[in-house]
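the two lines:
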Amino acid sequence: MVSTCFLCQGLTTLAGLLLLSFGSLAASQIEDQAEQFFRSGHTNNWAVLVCTSRFWFNYRHVANTLSVYRSVKRLGIPDSHIVLMLADDMACNPRNPKPATVYSHKNMELNVYGDDVEVDYRSYEVTVENFLRVLTGRIPPSTPRSKRLLSDDRSNILIYMTGHGGNGFLKFQDSEEITNIELADAFEQMWQKRRYNELLFIIDTCQGASMYERFYSPNIMALASSQVGEDSLSHQPDPAIGVHLMDRYTFYVLEFLEEINPASQTNMNDLFQVCPKSLCVSTPGHRTDLFQRDPKHVLITDFFGSVRKVEITTETISLQPESGIMESSHEKDGMDEESLEPLKYAEQLPVAQIIHQKPKLKDWHPPGGFILGLWALIIMVFFKTYGIKHMKFIF
Amino acid sequence: MAAAVPLFLLVLLLLGSGGWSQAEPPRDSLREELVITPLPSGDVAATFQFRTRWDLDLQREKVSHYRLFPKALGQLISKYSLRELHLSLTQGFWRTRYWGTPFMQAPSGAELWVWFQDTITDVDRSWKELSNVLSGIFCASLNFIDSTNTVTPTASFKPLGLANGTDHYFLRYAVLPREVVCTENLTPWKKLLPCSSKAGLSVLLKADRLFHTSYHSQAVHIRPVCRNARCTSVSWELRQTLSVVFDAFVTGQGKKDWSLFRMFSRTLTEPCPLASESRVYVDITSYSQDNETLEVYPPPLATYQDVILGTRRTYAVYDLLDSAVINNSRSLNLQLKWKRPPESGYIHYQPAQDRLQPHLLEMLIQLPASSVTKVSIHFERALLKWTEYTPDPNHGFYVSPSVLSALVPSVVAAKPVDWDESPLFNTLFPVSDSSSHFVRLYTEPLLVNLPTPDFSMPYNVICLTCTVVAVCYGSFYNLLTRTFRIEEPRTGGLAKRLANLLRRARGVPPL
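prediction for all of em together
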């Protein structure tokens, strides 16, 4: 009997030990999983997509920006987290033979404009000042939410810019420029205000690599379509529309992104290889020295998609219904109905009233500025000529 | 214990929902309507209206639950103390001369006019903030509205809703003519609709068809209206309207038959489940266009007649909530067909070929009684080759007269003539039908002044050039190529000259 007890005790302890070890194994597995959870360090994604060129022959820049917009939306970033700036309207341009469409390929296969597009800054609103205000967050208080970049220190931001550029600058709407130094300073402001966790900067212009030469804030990775001294070239024209539809670099980036889905594990090194010189004619460049992590551990979806980490729990949460509010307001309405007199509509064109209305008196302001100075001069000249003793004739 | 908890919750839920089933009927209602109007020029106008009426006085009651009325607009009304808001975004211009009078017209670009409540203290500040908020909602550059383009009209733009005082101090009006309307403005407008673009009339709102039009106008109107006939309480009304005009040649490929599928590339399948009324009206007041009558297919189950904009019009009504309208085919594709009587006209046109043959136009027309018919042809003047001009080109060039051959009904029937017996003047044209007589009339010839080159110019050019060459170049040429030698002046009289002659004969140098 005692031996069996000992046996069963031993068995239970053995079982307990085994369970414990399994439990600890499971715990360490969960910890590993939790580790993986916050591997990249970001919790939300934002995208700022800017097209800086105006006029119909710059159709390709709008198509570039809209292709990236489309990929980014497809991979999960919602419209509320995308700030899209288009400097001109190509889709409803009178010169567009197919209104409300912007195509990326010459056989009109892909309409990147789509049916569900929300442009936040358009036409004349795309200026260097507005762009820098969006990045740094110094926006007038009446700006609506959809026009703000409300990122925090756990946001990964994708910034894509395209247009005409040169060595050290990018042209906005053919009337002003932003220099690489201003851009670098704007990113430093963002870093100091903790407005980003990691930032991916892509630029598709001529001599694009010059724009990222001056960055000095941490956690920035940059890609450009051409080196200093090289031009970025456009892809192919469409005979029906009459202009070039896309730039080469973004065309191949779009092709690459079309194969990405929210669950894919493709990393940044693949993006660096996207457009070799044979296809792009210019040499795409990249800069990763400011970035903490190794690019091969950075997933494409860390910047282009909004992959939410979801935790499933089996607890139940109960909500209390609040039915009191709706009934009470209805009662109050019933009481008011009897006591008011009938209301009436306004007359649309009351001619008699219009003719006989009196003009409103404007508020009187004391004279200032030029008028005041003029009167002071006249009075001074008068008294100088005639002497101060004549004042007694006035008063 | 753990099993008992969910059971307890389940029981609560059942009781709760039982309590809710006796809740009052919803206080907002949606009506949607589409009016299709064939226009006199052959184009078709389609006007969508979505009206959400909310039986609530937003100024007095706190709102926590939004159902059909969009929250984005409801919050604006309470936050900025709005009495009325009218915003329209338009591309194109309504051509009244060709299309007739519109139901409502909007200016090209963006137009925003707002009446504020008289409880508001700083109207201009609210106006600026409101335009910024609206620019975010509708993705339009309404934030450019400021004091430089805002006015306060004093006489017109009276409130379209209920008003108990009209102090124009609370009205603000601004227009941005440069605003472009595109899909990014249509998308948020569609999202304000209760059924979005999933069911009802809003499935027809596809951007690629709606922007391929001559006129596109979308608007949002918010105003307070009477709740019932006695008008003792206020309801808020939100109307979203969209008017488009489809061009007969661009989208219709020149054909005059229209259908919903051709216009919108969609057909109607079901009404919006949240709508209390969902109707399509087609204007079948027939226009007298070459005796054609308009036929609508499928035939309507009801018609509606009223005086609209001053004229009596008849509309065919299709009620989508009536199950007989959308029958077994599960989709409603309205078709408008023009039925014309058999052709009795004839047109033959042969265009000219340069230096080969002239234009020829022959038309057979039936003229209605007591009417004036004008036939006009546009032409352009061209330049001929300089050898083809006559010696007096400034006289002009002649165009041959037109010929009119007509069968005119006779007042008195003629009897057939005998060619041998009757006088000669009666037998010029053979008469086949005694009820009408034949006449052939001619118009005057046309003298056209063509652009004539100045034929004297070659002569002038030659004269001028030769003069310049002779005077300038000739002088230089002479200076450069002539050699000069000094010549002694001749002195002495006749004797010296004779002596020089003799000496020259001898071969001796002269004196």
